[in-house]
Design brief:
This is Leucine-rich repeat-containing N-terminal plant-type domain-containing protein. By secondary structure, the protein is an all-beta fold. The protein has no helices and five strands. The protein has one domain. 0% of the residues lie in helices and 18% in strands.
Length: 80
């Protein structure tokens, strides 16, 4: 658990394949998502950071991520 620790900077380009759960929530992380962020066997929480989605992907999250918290759906429709 690395959430709420005032971490800054980018996510690492490489992580151990043996990691199953990573919580980087509520920090000040920036940058884009590394390729490991969508590993099927990884539970990842990136809520409340400052990531950029970039103009090349039209503001969409990487495949496998929902609201920056993998395996947790969120409301994506228009508020009523």
């Amino acid at each position: 658990f690395l959430g709420n620790n005032s971490l800054t900077g980018r996510l690492p380009d490489v992580i151990s394949r043996s990691l199953k759960t990573i919580d980087f929530s509520y920090n000040q992380l920036t940058g884009s998502f590394p390729s490991w962020a969508t590993q099927n066997n990884l539970q990842l929480n990136l809520v409340a950071n400052n990531f950029v989605l970039g103009s090349t992907n039209n503001g969409t999250l990487p495949s496998g991520l929902n609201c920056l918290q993998q395996d947790t759906p969120c409301f994506r429709g228009t508020p009523e």
